[in-house]
Amino acid sequence: NAGVMQNPRHLVRRRGQEARLRCSPMKGHSHVYWYRQLPEEGLKFMVYLQKENIIDESGMPKERFSAEFPKEGPSILRIQQVVRGDSAAYFCASSSAGTGDGYTFGSGTRLTVV
Amino acid sequence: KQEVTQIPAALSVPEGENLVLNCSFTDSAIYNLQWFRQDPGKGLTSLLLIQSSQREQTSGRLNASLDKSSGRSTLYIAASQPGDSATYLCAVEGTSGTYKYIFGTGTRLKVLA
Hints:
The complex is a heterodimer.
Chain A: E1 5-7, E2 10-13, E3 19-24, E4 31-37, E5 43-50, E6 53-56, E7 65-68, E8 75-79, E9 88-95, E10 104-105, E11 109-113
Parallel strand pairs in A: 2-11
Antiparallel strand pairs in A: 1-3, 3-8, 4-5, 4-9, 5-6, 7-8, 9-10, 9-11
Chain B: E1 4-7, E2 10-14, E3 19-25, E4 30-38, E5 44-51, E6 56-59, E7 62-67, E8 72-77, E9 86-94, E10 101-103, E11 107-112
């Protein structure tokens, strides 16, 4: 029973390029959450998705960032025209909603913008 | 607005010592509270989940308590080991139903052999 799978583990992008981060939730989990951890800061909520729906994107920057969770395939966090300030660890978590059973986190994607 | 604070920010103890990590939150209207462990450069591992109706949870050498009315939780680690060295994060989920966790900035624990 694989956990939450994130890839790639490390991603290096030049300023202005696009970054695509992938997250496959645990089997049986239909709710996905993305968090960002900036250096020396705590984790901050970005977006909460269910299959084909964005439920809460209140933590996501209005520009350049988008997220999706299609009917088939992993959830994608997409960052367009990356800047140095986007360098961070991006964590995905999943849950089986309605049970309040907490989150299971993936190992994260560490994005470095050079 | 919910804020979560963890003290101390860093802690260094000799092996074998019992220790307590503290977490406080400003809004007592929480759905649950979760303690996580994060190793350097790694993801988060869930340690204990306490529902709002519960007072404590135990797993092995770990015990977490929750006092909702005072906005506090403690994580007790018994007989600490070097392998316990990590950052410990506390996170609370509000009652809004969006499953959004607010995280503290963590306590960096180092257990010396």
